[in-house]
Design brief:
Blueprint: H1 3-24, H2 27-69, H3 76-86, H4 88-111, H5 119-167, H6 187-200, H7 206-217, H8 222-249, E1 257-258, E2 264-265, H9 269-274, H10 284-318, H11 329-332, H12 336-351, H13 356-364, H14 368-379, H15 390-409, H16 413-432, H17 436-440, E3 467-468, E4 484-487, E5 490-496, H18 510-528, E6 539-550, E7 559-569, E8 573-581, E9 587-599, H19 610-616
Antiparallel strand pairs: 1-2, 3-4, 4-5, 5-7, 6-9, 7-8, 8-9
Helix pairs in contact: 1-5, 1-7, 1-8, 1-10, 2-6, 2-7, 2-8, 4-5, 4-10, 4-12, 4-13, 5-10, 5-12, 6-16, 14-16, 15-16
């Protein structure tokens, strides 16, 4: 490698490292460093900052490993998109909590701490301004250019940090105002949730995945970029924590407030110290500190804007939900609604006198099971071949959140630790369990197209029982089957092939497969649109195209199952997907058909009627 190439690679890692650091310096890391230092001193600062930085680096090392072991034709982005499609709501909820927390933290611990007149109106205006700046920066730079803007902002942070540190001793101490209040909190009860949260947290952060993917596209070392990023991030935490230690020496601990849970909070102690004792809001030192905080937060919000937009654009493009064909695409792919919801949540939390910890408990409990499964499966072999027991994971996540919350409010470290470790154990157990397909039937291999989906490889505890329709009947014979039922959003028509379906050779004639699909489609329409009357209807459903791929042959007296579900929509057309399988669930053939809708009298093409959309919803993936 030439010296020029080495320099170029190092510069890219430095640029990306600054963006990684700033995108991870949201409200949790920035302000909880103050709180943890207030509670446990230097020990608290280091035990908070070190796991946080290590967790960030391990994410970079892990994604670099995933990219390296990817099969030919795969990319880190493709691997992530498959995961994010299945966990889209989890990724978006994670981002929503992170954005709400970030807006909340800066507004509550900086602007509310200034105790200005008309505080409610001020906070509302502040939040609007934060969102506007984030939108402007996000639209202006995008992920390919954001590393340069963030490198500039990190340089400004260095200048501000040096100025603050050099001039901080000009602030007078607070004599004769009593000792700082103390919390009777267990250090270990805090440390374990902190470590779990920060070691797993980056894996569900869209901002970090987007950066790792972009580094991989640019052929920049992800591991090097995240090593630089974790060190730069650690420097920010160390600076802010050290400033907290200095503020406590100056007596700022007396500004700690008693929360609604009886615990004392001091995230805004530095702000209150710098604006007291003759130092006012127009002083250079307070303004430098305010600028430091605002830059850290803004460079998280603009990253969040870009990442959410990136995720939504792919999700809507690849998604098959019926709503995607009804609502405007510009609305579905815009991050603005999520940001507005986060801002409203932050303002409500401020009005309710909540604290940062009420947001951060989600990252140590609720999201942990999902993150553990993602880590184990993505770093191991065949990471995508798993069916997620989503209801079970959701229930465990909520339970862990409640247990840890009770432990925090009542100062019970055992509950706090248990609430954190339960999702770790459950997530690890679910991620390492073998699918039933691998245990039960080696003679029933997965068919073409099944290995890329969570649903196609089922867990032993999540086998689905068919939901039979009222019209279901039983066929005679030793292996009775239901002739009509719904299973996993598939409408299924089952029957036995007979002599009339075969040709002179003895196997089923090829044309019968299309006839079976056509008959099943009519039964499907009758099932989901039982009130449809051809004599009174205002619309007709016509076939636009049909395609079928043959896989295996069927023979006389084989049990045949024809499955149909709605693959996707747009405003004018609906696509039905079909599969034909035998009694052993072996794939005989598969394909799709496109439907269009016309007026019954003039045959003029129309949008999909609302009653059809409603009827198709239960069968839409």
């Amino acid at each position: 490698m030439s010296i020029h190439t080495m320099k170029s690679s190092a510069s890219k890692s430095l640029f990306w490292g600054s963006s990684v650091a700033l995108s991870w310096t949201w409200g949790l890391g920035l302000f909880f460093a103050v709180q943890f230092t207030f509670q446990f001193g230097l020990k608290g600062l280091l035990s908070f900052a070190i796991p946080n930085a290590i967790g960030l680096f391990l994410f970079g090392a892990g994604t670099a490993h995933i990219a390296k072991k990817a099969k030919p034709g795969q990319s880190l982005e493709l691997i992530f998109q498959k995961w994010s499609t299945k966990l889209s709501s989890v990724f978006l909820f994670y981002q929503f909590i992170a954005l709400s927390l970030t807006i909340f933290a800066l507004t509550r611990y900086l602007f509310q701490a200034l105790d200005l007149a008309n505080s409610l109106l001020l906070l509302l205006l502040v939040v609007i301004a934060l969102l506007a700046i984030a939108f402007l920066l996000g639209e202006q730079f995008g992920i390919t250019k954001i590393k340069y803007s963030h490198a500039f902002f990190y340089g400004v942070l260095i200048i501000l940090g040096i100025y603050i540190w050099v001039t901080k001793d000009t602030v007078a101490s607070l004599p004769g105002m009593g000792n700082a209040p103390k919390n009777d909190l267990n250090f270990l009860g805090y440390l374990i949730p902190v470590c779990v949260g920060f070691f797993t947290g980056p894996w569900l952060d869209l901002q970090q995945w987007q950066r790792a993917i972009e580094m991989h596209k640019e052929k920049t070392s992800i591991r090097a970029g995240y090593l630089v990023g974790s060190l730069l991030f650690f420097a920010i935490l160390l600076f802010h924590g050290s400033l907290t230690l200095w503020a406590m020496e100056q007596g700022a601990g007396i500004y700690a407030r008693k929360g609604i849970d009886g615990i004392f909070y001091a995230q805004d102690m530095i702000t209150r110290l710098l604006t007291s004792q003759g130092t006012n809001l127009t002083g250079v030192l307070p303004l430098a500190y305010f600028a430091f905080l605002i830059i850290c937060i803004i460079t998280t919000l603009d990253s969040g804007y870009i990442a959410v937009k990136w995720h939504l654009q792919h999700h809507v493009k690849e998604g098959k939900n019926m709503l995607y064909s009804i609502l405007p695409k510009s609305l579905l792919t815009s991050p603005i609604p999520l940001f507005v919801a986060a801002a409203i949540t932050a303002l409500v939390a401020i009005e309710a006198n909540l604290e940062l910890e009420y947001f951060m408990v989600f990252f140590a409990t609720y999201f942990v099971s999902y993150a553990i499964i993602l880590i184990i499966r993505s770093l191991g072999d065949n990471p995508l071949e798993i069916h997620l027991a989503k209801t079970k994971i959701f229930a465990i996540s909520c339970l862990s959140l409640v247990i840890a919350g009770l432990g925090y409010i009542h100062l019970e470290p055992i509950l706090l630790i248990a609430g954190t470790l339960i999702p770790v154990i459950v997530g690890g157990w679910l991620a390492t369990r073998k699918p039933i397909a691998a245990i039960q039937s080696s003679h029933q291999p997965l068919q073409d197209g099944q290995t890329d989906s969570f649903e196609d490889v089922r867990q032993a505890d999540s086998l689905d029982t068919p939901v039979h329709s009222a019209a279901a009947t039983q066929l005679a014979g030793s292996d009775n089957i239901a002739s009509e039922y719904v299973q996993d959003k598939w409408y299924v028509h089952a029957f036995r092939a007979t002599y009339g379906d075969t040709n002179s050779v003895g196997n089923v004639y090829f044309g019968m497969y299309a006839m079976w699909v056509g008959k099943t489609r009519e039964l499907f329409f009758n099932y989901c649109l039982p009130d449809f009357d051809l004599k009174k209807t205002a619309f007709l459903i016509l076939t636009r195209s049909f395609e079928h791929k043959f896989a295996l042959e069927a023979r006389e007296f084989d049990i045949i199952k024809v499955k149909i579900k709605v693959k996707n929509f747009n405003r004018k057309f609906a696509t039905l997907e079909h599969r034909i399988v035998d009694q052993k669930e072996r794939l005989l053939g598969k394909g799709s058909q496109s439907l269009l809708f016309v007026k019954a009298d003039t045959y003029e093409q129309i949008d999909i009627p609302s009653e059809v959309l409603a009827a198709f919803t239960p069968f839409t993936t």
